Amino acid sequence: MGSEDGLERARSLYERAVFDGEAGVLDVADRELDAVEAGLALARGRIMHARFFEDGKEDPREPALFERAAGLYRALGDPRGESEALFWLGVFHQVVRGDDETAVPVLERSHELAARAGDRLTMSYALRHLGTAEHAAGRLEPARERLEESTRLRRELGFLPGVAANLVGLVHIAAAQGRRDDALALAEEGRALAEATGARNIARQIEEARARV
Asked: pTM (2 decimals)?
């Protein structure tokens, strides 16, 4: 259900409380509005994160929005929503602040909750960024394992631009491990997927990775 649905249900519940004397429905209305607020906080935080890639400037409001969304989803008993909000909070710490020490436990919790909820897409995102943290720490085999598992999930979901994005990291890892033939094969697959799906930024990253093999 979208935010407009939640707002409309809250309005209807308000009228039932005021005009029909059903005071007990107000708690339900609060939950509807909490869900709307959580979704809005998550969406606004993602927009702020996208702006970071445009200007490279941290918006200090971003982590608070993801924390608010995670807290609301937790109170609502929504592990899928909480896992997504925690994922973005982890990404903020990893990408914007370069703080893997803070990011990794948050990403691990996101993955745990996403697995519980059966949310394979968020699982794939959490695994991708956990792999990135392993790579940054020089632990190439654990990094490869996490990225390969993320890629497997994305293939199952048909999320081909996401597969291509993961192949960028796998090219770098293969090259660092001395697996040059694997690196070139991964780069070729990534190029084909990126071009087929119109993922121009990923295609550029694949070419940059290939050039370093």
From this structure: 0.88
